[in-house]
């Protein structure tokens, strides 16, 4: 159990760290890409406004009293390679603006591709373009090279990814080595709790046996009264509770399951037949549909206990004159069991809390439906120990369905 808990702790913690680190990398790189895109669009707008030429840089004085000043370039002046293509009366003219990175023939090919795409803005190779149409029906396509920024973005992305990966590995190693200490503290508390439950249950057995024996002696000598009968009844209930607690503790402590291949169909059918008499005595009926020849590799005693708990629970809490439907099917190479019955005070939702220890809904706290809220907790322990899944839910607020995937 300690190994499984440690594994779950490492996986959950590392998953959170992974999500946080790489989400930050994604957000930071997305913001940089967004800002670069704004700068490129701003540069194209300035080129269009300045008749196809980037405005000359401005000299900005940092301090008028200083003996020197620096040349500060506006963001759009970062892009040096730009040009435009004019298209008028089926004539294409390339204005290269001293571009040294592309020939006029290649620029005209870009223009023809853009005309074929019929798009007013976009990206072609390492150039971003924007097409406008003037009043005299002349189409001008403005191009600006953003390859320096693209290289910068790629370098930053890979560097940030590398840093994130190193940080992730370092945090993973820390979590891996310290997880044993963290889990050991949890396991110590859990083991003490289990020892306490086991010790208390065993210590209670002796005084309860003595009290019951004394009540029986009084009943033999003076005759049983309502008081002695009540004492014996409550002692029997406490003995059942003790047996449940001991069984549940053993289930949770046991890591190794005595697995054998057996017929799940036959075991469920035998359990249903056994509980048919009990259900009819309470004016309730069991209707079962069991797919034949379903084999399962598990602990037959625990699975039999699981079926008994679920059927007993369904009979106890189902409405009078109602049917308890049981269906065992083989779906996607897995046996799946459905147990459904009509019940009161249901909502359309899942009832995960039913599988907690000592959980009892307020509606069930009456003398007719006496119980300790341990049965379904035991059922869940059995299912989990077999690597299965158990769910309780109501789809219509009238019928409760317990589904088990083996």
Structural summary, described in words:
By secondary structure, the chain is α+β, with helices and mostly antiparallel strands. The protein is built from 7 helices and 15 strands. Among the domains are: 183-253, Signal transduction histidine kinase, dimerisation/phosphotransfer (DHp) domain (Helix Hairpins); 260-405, Histidine kinase-like ATPase, C-terminal domain (Heat Shock Protein 90). Helix 6 packs antiparallel against helix 7. The longest helix has 76 residues, at 147-222. The radius of gyration is 39 Å and the shape is elongated. It starts with a helix and ends with a strand. Mean pLDDT is 81; it is low at 65-78 and 363-367.
List the defining traits of the structure above.
20% strand; 406 residues; 5-stranded antiparallel beta sheet; alpha+beta; 52% helix; 7 helices; Helix Hairpins; single chain; 15 strands; 6-stranded mixed beta sheet; Heat Shock Protein 90
Quick summary:
The protein has helices spanning 2-49, 104-117, 147-222, 226-253, 264-281, 300-317, 375-385, and strands at residues 59-60, 70-71, 82-88, 91-95, 121-124, 127-133, 139-145, 260-263, 285-290, 295-298, 323-331, 334-342, 349-350, 389-394, 399-405. The chain is an alpha+beta fold and 406 residues long.
Question: What is the element layout, followed by pairings?
Answer:
Layout lengths: L1 H48 L9 E2 L9 E2 L10 E7 L2 E5 L8 H14 L3 E4 L2 E7 L5 E7 L1 H76 L3 H28 L6 E4 H18 L3 E6 L4 E4 L1 H18 L5 E9 L2 E9 L6 E2 L24 H11 L3 E6 L4 E7 L1
Parallel strand pairs: 9-11
Antiparallel strand pairs: 1-2, 3-4, 3-7, 5-6, 6-7, 8-10, 11-12, 12-15, 13-14, 14-15
Helix pairs in contact: 1-3, 3-4, 4-7, 5-6, 6-7
């Amino acid at each position: 159990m300690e190994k499984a808990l440690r594994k779950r702790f490492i996986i959950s913690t590392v998953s959170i760290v992974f999500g946080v680190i790489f989400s930050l990398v994604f957000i930071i790189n997305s913001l940089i890409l967004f800002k670069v895109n704004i700068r490129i669009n701003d540069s194209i707008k300035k080129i269009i406004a300045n008749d196809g030429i980037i405005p000359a840089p401005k000299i900005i004085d940092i301090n008028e009293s200083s003996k020197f000043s620096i040349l500060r370039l506006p963001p759009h002046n970062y892009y040096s390679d730009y040009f435009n293509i004019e298209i008028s009366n089926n004539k294409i003219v390339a204005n290269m603006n001293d571009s040294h990175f592309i020939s006029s023939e290649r620029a005209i090919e870009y223009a023809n591709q853009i005309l074929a795409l019929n798009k007013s803005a976009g990206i072609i190779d390492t150039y971003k373009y924007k097409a406008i149409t003037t009043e005299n029906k002349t189409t001008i396509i403005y191009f600006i090279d953003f390859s320096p920024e693209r290289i910068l973005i790629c370098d930053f992305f890979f560097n940030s990814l590398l840093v994130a990966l190193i940080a992730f590995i370092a945090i993973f190693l820390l979590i891996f080595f310290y997880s044993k200490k963290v889990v050991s503290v949890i396991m110590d508390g859990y083991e003490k709790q289990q020892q306490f439950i086991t010790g208390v249950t065993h210590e209670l057995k002796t005084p309860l046996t003595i009290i019951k024996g004394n009540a029986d002696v009084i009943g033999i000598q003076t005759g049983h009264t309502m008081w002695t009968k009540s004492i014996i009844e409550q002692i029997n209930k406490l003995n059942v509770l003790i047996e449940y607690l001991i069984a549940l503790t053993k289930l949770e402590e046991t890591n190794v399951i005595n697995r054998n291949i057996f017929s799940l169909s036959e075991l469920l059918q035998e359990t249903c037949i056994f509980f048919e008499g009990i259900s009819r005595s309470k004016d309730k009926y069991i209707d079962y549909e069991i797919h034949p020849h379903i084999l399962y590799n598990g602990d037959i005693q625990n699975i039999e206990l699981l079926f008994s708990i679920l059927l007993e629970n369904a009979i106890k809490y189902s409405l009078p004159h109602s049917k308890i439907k049981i269906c065992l099917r083989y779906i996607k190479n897995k046996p799946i069991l459905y147990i459904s019955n009509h019940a009161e005070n249901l909502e359309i939702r899942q009832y995960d809390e039913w599988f907690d220890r000592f959980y009892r809904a307020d509606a069930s706290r009456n003398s007719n439906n006496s119980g300790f809220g341990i049965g379904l907790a035991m059922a869940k322990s059995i299912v989990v120990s077999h690597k299965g899944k158990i769910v309780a839910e109501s789809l219509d607020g009238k019928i409760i369905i317990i589904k088990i995937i083996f």
